[in-house]
Amino acid sequence: MLQQVVKTRQHATNSFQLVIPELTVRAGEFVAVVGESGCGKSTLLDLLALISKPNEVSRFRLAFTEQDQTDVASLWARNDENALASVRRRHLGYVLQTGGLLPYLSVQDNLLLPMRMNRLPGANQRVLAMAERMGVTDCLKRKPDALSGGQRQRVAILRALSHAPRLVLADEPTAAVDKRRARLIVDDFRSLARDEGLSIIMVTHDVDLVKSLADATYGFEVTQVAENQVRSICRREPA
């Protein structure tokens, strides 16, 4: 997916550089990205979500099927924002650590929203089937503020999946729940990746939570290369 990608961020006189020598996620895989605060996890997610343009890139390709492949590097080179927005809308799902549900919509309407934006058929039937699988059928008519923390995160996961994306990004989705619920969420991700043939990338600081379930784990090597310059290299951890 990614090869020799570099992203530099400047803040006043300070510079942070994230280097990704290689990152590959296949269909049906659940991949964990683990690191402490400030190591570049959010920067990596911004790149994967196609909302932050890399400074350097050798290869950046999304290949969902043999017929459906997108050379993201070339889209960045052409500054083709319309094509990038189309890829994000059709193929990417995003789970925020706070859920990110719209408070004025019911759970059912939150789940339907991505499908309506993509004009997908069979929306109501898909939402009902997904809600039953994740055990939140009785929550469909409620507003998000009437849900428990665990229920909100499960609904947030379902919303990210409702339009049948091929790549799902999860930003610390277990940060607001206890250890038991966190483990259930990670179990959900692993089973959804395999059953639906999805590629799921989950960012977390808790290596113990994911180490026995992830198909691959990526970490960060952070180095102070100058007084005001930090470099972080994202690499796959040994199995």
Low-confidence stretches: none
**Helix fraction?**
25-40%
Tell me the CATH topology: Rossmann fold
CATH architecture grouping? 3-Layer(aba) Sandwich
Gross morphology is: globular
Alpha-beta classification: alpha/beta
Report, as a whole number of angstroms, the end-to-end distance. Answer: 19 Å
Beta-sheet strand percentage?
25-35%
CATH class: Alpha Beta
Descriptive account of the structure:
- With 239 residues, the protein is α/β, with parallel strands linked by helices.
- The protein is built from 8 helices and 10 strands.
- Helix 4 packs parallel to helix 6 (149-161).
- The model has no long low-confidence stretch (mean pLDDT 87).
